[in-house]
Amino acid sequence: MSPRTVLCTLGLTALFLVAASDIALAAGGAGAGPDIPGMLRHLLNLAILLGFLGWALRKPMSDFLTSRRLEVKEALDESWKSKASAEEVYQEIEARIANFEGEIETLMTDVRSDADMERKSIEERAQQAAAQLESAAKRSVDEELRRARRELREQAIGLAVGHASALLSNSVRDDDQQRLTGDYLGKVGEAAKR
Amino acid sequence: MSNAVARRYAKSLSDLAHSEGCLETVASDLSGIVTLMSDSLELRSALGNPSIPLSERSAVLKTVLAKLGAHKITCNFMSLLLDNNRLVSLSDINSAFEQNYDERIGRVRARVCSAVALDKATLEALEKHLLAVTGKEQILLETEVDASLVGGIVTHVGDLVFDGSIRTQLNLLQNKLLSQETPAQA
Fold this sequence. Notes:
- Chain A is mainly alpha-helical and 194 residues long.
- Chain A is built from 4 helices and no strands.
- Chain A starts with a helix and ends with a helix.
- Chain B folds into 2 domains: 3-103, Peroxidase, domain 1; 107-179, Glutaredoxin, CATH 3.40.30.
- In chain B, helix 2 (23-39) packs antiparallel against helix 6 (90-105).
- The A-B interface holds A 146, 149-150, 153-154, 157-158, 160-161, 164-165, 168-169, 172, 174, 176-177, 180-181, 183-185, 187-189, 191-193 and B 114-116, 118, 122, 125-126, 129-130, 132-133, 147, 150-153, 155, 162, 164, 166-167, 170-171, 173-174, 177-178, 182, 184-185.
């Protein structure tokens, strides 16, 4: 509402109050009977006042009402939307509640399936680990066996050669030494010829 | 001292002795000094003790060399070794000198190791064969008896080895047996 409109409205309101007081005084002060012309004059003033107010406030009131109507309409639209959304949620919850048993069954089936797969996987891993352990143990045993055989063989050969050496030391006579020396000189002589 | 340094000392001495025509004398002197020093701990201690003044150690060395009747070149060389604190390497120097001396006179040394002592005829026959093998003019046999050979002879001539010992044959047999795979290993 503009300041001009407000001032006009205030002025006319003051005029109306003056007129209303005149009407009251006229009604109380005569005492002999109704003052018809006076009342008519006041009524005319009132009509003029009301007409003027209606003319002056027509545009602001119209704007106000339009704005208000739009607000109400928007609020109403928003309410409809909220209602629609709430109904959707409601429908969804209703549907889920209706399918609750089925969902639980599906969930249980999935859980059982996952558990079975996990069990199989654990069993396979355990079997692989057991096979690897068995293989490693077998290799270790084989290696130990080979090492023990090799050491036993080395010891046996060492002992045999040691005994042979001792026997030869005691049994080689002078004529054997002479023969060995002769063979040796022969071999060195052959090397000299080459 | 490294062998390279010992060889340089030995070569210098050998060249000088050769030019003076006293190579054999110096070689004999040097060998005698090395034997004396290896046998006498007191002499080694006296000459190698740094707390004894050098002049006194030099006097001791000169006295010893005079008693040995060493050649002048030998005396000067020993004094040089004492001054340079190289007497500790005398054995290495002597080895290098002997090698150098042998090369100069066309001689080779052979170490003959046998299970029993060898007679003169055997040694002469062996010397004859070794001369033919090495192509040298002289050969110096160093004999040694080692009963662990069980039987036979082993001769080292430079890098050559003639091994006819029973111990080596037994070792070869042992290695051959060890190298053979058993059915279980195969």
